[in-house]
Structure formats: C-alpha cells, structure tokens
Design brief:
The chain is mostly helical. The chain is built from 44 helices and no strands. The protein has a domain of 71 residues. α26 packs antiparallel against α27. The protein is elongated. Pfam families: HEAT_DAAF5, HEAT_MROH2B_C, TPR_DNAAF5.
Length: 834
C-alpha cells in the first residue's frame, strides 16, 4: 500500500516537476500557467488523489509555493494561496508545514504597514488563519504570539470583510486555547473597540461577538474597558447589533469567571434590553436575566435559604401585567443598587435624548426588581425623578411617571410622604407634583389613608395650589385625581381641601383644556362623596371656602388670588350663589367701593353682569335677590356711575351702566324696590347720557327706556320734563345708533306722562320738546326721520293743536314737506284736529 502511494506520488511529482521549475521564471504568464498546472495535477485531478499521495507530493512542493505568496503579480499570489488553502484544508499531515507557513503569514499580514495590497488576497490569508486555528486545536498554542500579532493588524484592515473574518478568527482562537489566550487577550481589545462604531452593522455585530469571546476566555478585567462602548451600542439603529450586545452581556452574566465583580456594570446593560423596542430582544434579555437570578440563587443557596424560607408571600398589591422577578434577581439588585442608581440618575439628565429615554426605561425595570429595597434609596431617587419630569421629551416623562407609580407600589407612604411632601413645600414645581400624583396612583389605599390629611394640607396650601403655570396646574389636578381614584370613600373628610385645590386651579388658569380636566376631576371627586356630579360639591364646600375670605376681602386688589377664586366660585356654583347672598353681597359691595382701584371694580362688575345674565340660575335661584337689589343698585352701581377723568374711570362707568342694564333686564328688580331709589338712579343715569364713551351713552338709553317702562307714571312729572331736554340733546349725537335709541327712549318716556296732560302747567316744556323733535324730522338720515316721526305721532296726543301750529311754522324750512304732511295727516285723522 505504501509502495503504491509512493509510486503514484512519484508520477505526480514527475508531471509537475516542470511546473515547479517554472515558478522561478521571470515571465508572469509562465508562473501563472505553472500554478494552474500544479492545481490541475493535484487537487484538480480526476479521480481525486489519495490523501497520502497529496501529502507526499506537497512535502516537496509546499516550500516552493511559499515563495509565490510574495509574487509581484496578484493573480499568481491568488493562485498560490488558493493551493495552500486547499492543502491545509484537505491534507491530513499539512500542519507539519505550519512552522514554515506562519512566518510568511506574519510577513504578509502582521506588519505595521499593509504589505499585501489586494483586499481579496488579504481576506484569503485571514481565512487561512481561521482554518489553521480550527484545524490545529491546541497545537496552535506555540504560534499564539504570531496569531495575535496578525489579528491586531487585520482587525484594523480597511476592508470590512477582512475585519469580519479577523473577528471570527479571534473567537475561534479564544475558545480553542483559553488557558494560553488569557495572557494575550487584552492586546485585541483596543483594535476591536476601534471597530465597534464601524459604519457597517455586520462589522459591528462581528466585533461585539469577538469582544464577548475574547473577554469570556481571556482577562475579565477588560470588561471595564468595553462596558461604556456596549452601553452606546444599546442605542444602535440596527436590531442585530443590539441583539449581539444582549447575547454577549447575557452570557457574561451567566458564565464570566469574574462576573460577581462586574455585576454592577453588566446588570444595567442587560436590563436595558428588557425594554428594547424589538420583542425578540426583550424576550432574550428577560430570559438571560431570569437565568442569571436562578444561577445566582443556586450559587448562594446556603446564604439565601433563610431569606426564602422566611420570605413573605407574593404581595397582593402588585403592578398589574408585571411578572415578579425571582429571588436571585431581586437579591442581585438589592446588593448592587447603591452602585447602579447614582449613575442611572445622572444618565437621566444626559444631553442626548436617546440616553435619557433608555435610562428612564431602565429605571422602571430596576424598581420592579428592587421592590421595597428602594426605601433606603429614596433620598437619592426622588431628586432625580423630580428633575426628569421636566424633560422636554414626552417618552422620558412617561417612563419617569411609571417609575414613580412603581415606587408607590413598593415603598410605604410612611417613608415617601415625608420626603415628597417636604420637596413640595420647598419647591412646589411640576416635577415634584407629578411624582406625588404617580406615587399616589401606585399606593395601597389602606396604607395611604393615615397620610391623606398631610397630603391634602400640602396640596391646598396657597404656596402650592395658587400657581398660574399650566403644567403645574395640570399636575395638581392629577394629584387630586389620583387621591380620588385610590382613596375613594376615604376622600370626604378631606373634600374641602381637595375642592379648594380644584377651584383655585380653575380660577387661575387661562387654558380651556385645564378647565375641562378640572371639571372631569370634580365629577370623579363627587362620586367618592356618593354624589352624582361635581356640581353637587359646590353645595357642600362653597360656604366654607367663602368663610375663609371674611378676614381679608376688604383688602383685595386686582392681583389678589382670592378675588379670582371668588369669581370662579360664583360663576361655577350656579344656583348655590342664591343660597349664600348674605355672604356674597357684602364682599361685592366692599370691592365695588369707588375708593377701590378701578381694575378690581371692573372685575366685580363683569362678574355681576355674568351672574345677572342667568339670574334665575344664580343670584335669584331662591327668589331672594330682590331683597338685596336695592343694596346692589344703591351701594354698587350708582356710586360707580359718577364721572371721573381717565379711560379706566370711563370703563368703570360703562361697566356699571351695563350691570344696571343687566339687572333691569333680568327682572329681579321689582318696581316697588326701584321706586325707593328712583331719584338717585335717574339723576346718575341721566348724567351718563353725556358720557364720552359711545357704548356708555347707548346702554344708558336702554336703561332709561327700561326704567320708563317699569316705573310708568310713578316718576315725578317735573323729573320727566327735566329729562326730555337731555334726550333732545342726544338727538344731536355723533352716532346714529344712539339717536335711534334716544327716539325709542322718547316713546317709553311719553307713556310716563299722566293723563290728562297738564298743558297749562307744562306748555313751555311741551313747546321746547316739539320744536326740538321737529328739527330732527328734517334730518339728512331717513332712518332718523322715521324714528322721530314715530315719536311725534305719539307725542301729538299731548296737545295736537300746539304740534300742528309748530309744524306749520317750520314746514317751509324742511328739505321736503313729506314728513310734516304725514304728521299733520295723522293728527287730523286720528286726533280730530283741523
């Protein structure tokens, strides 16, 4: 058999002898054909040569092929290296030539500068390295230094495929001879890390896998060098990269020899993947974490056995949809939380948005695993949560809110109340209130009940709830909502405080969404009282809230928060206002004192007008407002109609007159009440006919018309005749709207003259009125002429003959006799005057 192999090998050697000699020729084509001939006569022969024959042939030929690795022609090098690769792949005794081949590899790949210019050939050579390590097994150990030297260079190769193959070779090398490799492993970490941000995701994946194997089988101390880089890869856009990190870190947590030393660095990485956006990665990380806990428990069974034997049963009050981690996981977090938490809180304030989001997500996972262990870390945790709540990124805020809610599940109110409420007292900001709202949402009702008084007192304190910031107002509402939802029937003893918070927010907000949110929360609070809607709460709590104003309402100014609360309370409470007039009217009288700032009087008149628009549903809900009507007119309206210089004073007068108009129009001011203040009212109202403001004059006309309609002949006749010249004067107003309104007022005033009219006594007044009206019968504006004609037709009944005489005396002066003729015809037809 051996003779046959020898004979066949001799034949092959004879057939390729010429080709081997040709490898030294200067002609590149000759060398190329020689290499092709060698390949054809050896690995390309059909039928295939026996392994022993090939071994015999290449024992003489291999050294000649090594020269071709450095051939100046790329194609020749490629053919020669392909032959070498086939030799090492298929020939059993090929490793005997490793001492000759390894220096060649180092010379081509392990130099400071790139010696082999062809990317494809460099890739072939690295593939041969991988092949040699895999085939040599433990025998590669003597060449470890050479392999490390080569890999340090090839990992930095510009060709991505070479990088990937180098990573593969590093993994096999580390796993093949770990007992030798650990001495050299640190040499590969730096070149590997330089590739971890490579633009190709497949390269990044290969690098991460290689780092995993290198550290797993090498010096574990390198974990410290790579952790920060792995943390950055958690934000990688490629799921495969994040998956690779998770796989490596998970394996380290389970199998790394020195893992106990690095748990504080590895646990955050693994738990970060538990909240990854890809389900596959989440499941993988969760499985690794679960297994890590089990293994940790098994390795420390004696130490943890007592804890398990005397452990409390799974808590009944536990977050829904969350699976409780095993004892090993919880113990790991308990032991390392003090090292993990400060860094995590720091990352929640990082300038990179993605870092803040991941950190906030990790915080929720950490709290689930820490459970009541968080109690001793609250002083560190809360400031971080407060700050993160103000993050401009909604995803961060959402996860921080979830983290705070989980704190409520695991930390007792006895502990967190003092810290959280203390923070709110010091700085009642958005973050502090948001954390409180979420912690309450996660708290257990029975444990929270004893602390409700403290919580509600802080929330209802003026320093807390009297804010104009929309974000803070929103969180105040969230706090009340959380209390209502969690404490339910325990709320009524604290209902006044919660009601005060809600009304204060409503009073100070300019945001419609906050108003809607407040009313929704009010309805929920009402249900805790067994009431059907939030409106019912006003019956319970409006009077006590008004009582808190008794000591200071006389000192209110335009910026007083109490004034805004009073305003909101009266507008929102509806019919309850009618039950509390004894409390409400004195406050309004005091603040409509003419000595008060005009701004606050404007606010109160505006409030009064709004209430009067629906008097039956507000002030007069109990049909008692008439008892206070005279006070309203005499002490509130009339004093503010007195003329004073300035635009603000003018605005006050307009508002006061408007309020009087609303009062009269609402019907809550009966005639018998108005009669008692008639003189004062008419005197002041007539004076406002000359007001500089057009709107004031117009509203005054309407007020007079309403007064005339209401009082009729109750008005003193001399007073009426004194008013008519003022009305005639207003017919010269610059506004046509006012002139029309004056005409209508005249019509109402004419009904107030007693019948029969005393012509002898009031002849001069009547003549003046007829003459004044006839002047405007010739007005350029047709609508004014029509309005005045209607007045004159009605006034004619007082003394028709006198009016006809006046008409005849001025008719020839009018632009057109049309209206005079119509008036005379009316008198002759209806009043039988010729």
């Amino acid at each position: 058999m051996a003779d046959g192999v020898q004979t066949q090998a001799s034949e092959v050697l004879q057939s390729i002898a010429r080709h081997i000699n040709s490898l030294s020729e200067n002609s590149k084509m000759t060398r190329r054909r020689a290499l092709e001939g060698i390949q054809k006569e050896t690995f390309g022969r059909k039928p295939e040569l026996d392994n022993g024959v090939l071994e015999e042939v290449f024992s003489d030929t291999f050294k000649h092929l090594l020269k071709i690795v450095s051939d100046p022609v790329e194609k020749c090098r490629e053919l020669g290296i392909s032959l070498i690769r086939e030799y090492f792949s298929f020939v059993q005794g090929s490793l005997g030539n490793l001492p000759y081949f390894m220096p060649v590899l180092v010379q081509r790949l392990g130099q400071q500068e790139i010696v082999e210019p062809s990317e494809e050939i460099r890739l072939q050579l690295v593939e041969i390295c991988t092949l040699l390590v895999g085939k040599s097994k433990k025998k590669i150990a003597p060449y470890l230094d050479d392999m490390i030297k080569i890999l340090i260079r090839t990992l930095m190769d510009p060709y991505p495929e070479v990088k990937k193959e180098s990573c593969k070779c590093s993994i096999i090398l580390a796993e093949t001879i770990p007992e030798h490799f650990h001495m050299q492993s640190e040499s590969l970490i730096k070149p590997l890390l330089q590739n971890i941000i490579h633009q190709h995701s497949k390269v990044r994946v290969s690098v991460i896998e290689a780092i995993g194997a290198v550290i797993q089988n090498g010096n574990n101390k390198s974990v410290e060098d790579v952790v920060s880089h792995f943390a950055q890869r958690m934000f990688d856009q490629s799921p495969q990269v994040r998956k690779a990190v998770t796989l490596v870190v998970g394996n380290w947590c389970l199998h790394l020899l020195d893992r106990y030393s690095f748990f504080p660095k590895l646990i955050p990485l693994l738990l970060t993947s538990v909240t990854d956006e890809l389900p596959e990665i989440r499941e993988m990380a969760d499985s690794f974490w679960h297994d890590t806990g089990l293994k940790y428990y098994k390795e420390n069974e004696e130490e943890l056995k007592d804890k398990e034997d005397f452990a409390q049963p799974d808590p009944a009050h536990y977050p829904s949809g969350v699976e409780r981690p095993n004892l090993g996981c919880r113990t790991l977090i308990y032991r390392h939380l003090s090292k993990i938490l400060p860094a995590l809180i720091r990352d929640m304030g990082d300038w990179v948005v993605a870092t803040r989001i991941k950190s906030a997500q990790l915080m929720t996972t950490l709290i689930v695993n820490a459970e009541d262990c968080m109690t001793q870390h609250m002083a560190v945790l809360l400031p971080g949560l407060h700050k993160a709540c103000s993050d401009e990124e909604k995803e961060v805020v959402k996860n921080v809110g979830r983290a705070a809610e989980l704190v409520g599940y695991f930390v007792e109110p006895e502990v967190w109340c003092k810290l959280v409420l203390g923070a709110i007292k010091s700085s009642p900001g958005y973050g502090q209130l948001m954390v409180l709202a979420n912690i309450i949402r996660g708290s257990q009702r029975e444990l929270l009940k004893p602390k409700l008084e403290d919580i509600c007192s802080v929330l209802s304190h003026p320093d807390t709830c009297r804010t104009v910031q929309t974000e803070v107002q929103s969180q105040l509402l969230s706090c009340v909502l959380s209390i209502s939802q969690v404490c339910q029937e325990d709320c009524p003893p604290h209902g006044q405080q919660l009601f005060t918070v809600l009304v204060t927010v409503l009073a100070l907000t300019n945001d419609d969404s906050i108003r809607s949110q407040m009313r929704a929360v009010l309805d929920i609070l009402a249900k805790t009282h067994g009431l059907s809607s939030g409106q019912d709460l006003y019956s319970l709590y409006t009077k006590p809230l008004l009582d808190t104003f008794q000591d200071n309402y006389a000192m209110w100014n335009n910026f007083s928060v109490e004034r805004a609360i009073f305003d909101a309370l009266l507008v929102e409470s509806g019919p309850v206002v009618g039950e509390l007039l004894e409390d409400v009217i004195p406050i309004m009288v005091a603040n409509l004192n003419p000595e008060k700032d005009p701004e606050i009087r404007l606010k109160f008149f505006s409030l009064l007008s709004r209430l009067m628009l629906n008097a039956a549903g507000t002030l007069d809900s109990q049909q008692r407002f008439g008892d206070f009507a005279v006070t309203v007119v005499k002490d509130m309206v009339i004093p503010n109609c007195v003329w004073k210089a300035g635009r603000i004073a003018s605005a006050v007068r307009k508002t006061a007159v408007s309020c009087l108009w609303a009062l009269l129009k609402s019907g809550v001011l009966p005639k018998e009440k108005v009669v008692t203040v008639m003189e004062e009212v008419l005197t002041q109202v007539v004076s406002t006919l000359d007001d500089d403001d057009k709107s004031t004059r117009l509203i005054t006309c309407r007020v007079l018309m309403h007064l005339f309609n209401l009082l009729g002949t109750s008005i003193d006749q001399d007073r009426l005749h004194n008013i008519s010249p003022e009305l005639i004067k207003r017919l010269d107003d610059s506004s046509d709207d006012i002139r029309v309104a004056v005409s209508k007022t005249f019509l109402s005033m004419l009904d107030c003259f007693e019948k029969p009219y005393n012509v002898d006594l009031y002849r001069a007044h009547l003549e003046f009125m007829f003459k004044g009206l006839l002047v405007h019968l010739d007005d350029p504006e047709a609508n004014i002429q029509e309005a005045v004609l209607e007045v004159l037709m009605k006034a004619a009944s007082l003394q028709p003959a006198m009016l006809v005489k006046e008409i005849e005396s001025v008719k020839h002066k009018h632009r057109t006799p049309k209206y005079c003729d119509a008036l005379i015809e009316h008198i002759q037809t209806n009043l039988a005057v010729t």
